[in-house]
Amino acid sequence: MVIEIFMLSILRSGPMHGYELKRRVQRPSSVPLSNNSLYPALRRFEAAGLVTSAVEEQQGKPDRTVYSLTDAGRRHLTELLSTLPLELANDEEEFLVRVSFFGEIAPANRRAILAARLAAVDAAIAQVGDLLDPSSASVSREWRALTMGKVLERLHDERAWISELEQKALQP
Length: 172
Description:
Layout: H1 2-11, E1 16-17, H2 18-24, H3 35-47, E2 51-58, E3 61-69, H4 71-82, H5 92-100, H6 107-131, H7 141-169
Antiparallel strand pairs: 1-3, 2-3
Helix pairs in contact: 1-4, 6-7
């Protein structure tokens, strides 16, 4: 869903051709957007009425297709930003992209997104705790403990950050 959010949010700024859209989709946690992801997504968006396309003629160059966001596309983007399905709550990028748009999301939706992520973090903390069970003897136990200790530290840091966000999320 992150790619959809990025693409639709960029198209809010105005019509653009696929190459420009691809160039502007910046995903710090992943590889650049490929044509094999971009154009099928644009076709799906168009079939769903989220974008329209128009062929733009260029003198001395091949024609290019320009895509524009529709009102339905704006509504769909708002829906994507305002919810974090439980199956995606453990995906850090899915969570963070929504937080980055909290200025556009109603406080109740912000709280629901934070609650979903908090549940995922708590589940991860419990899972790591199980991995650190002292009754499991292993040659790798020392290294596992070091690694899982770092994972737990990060999870507890995120939990604290989510608590801070919860306070801020109450503000309109």
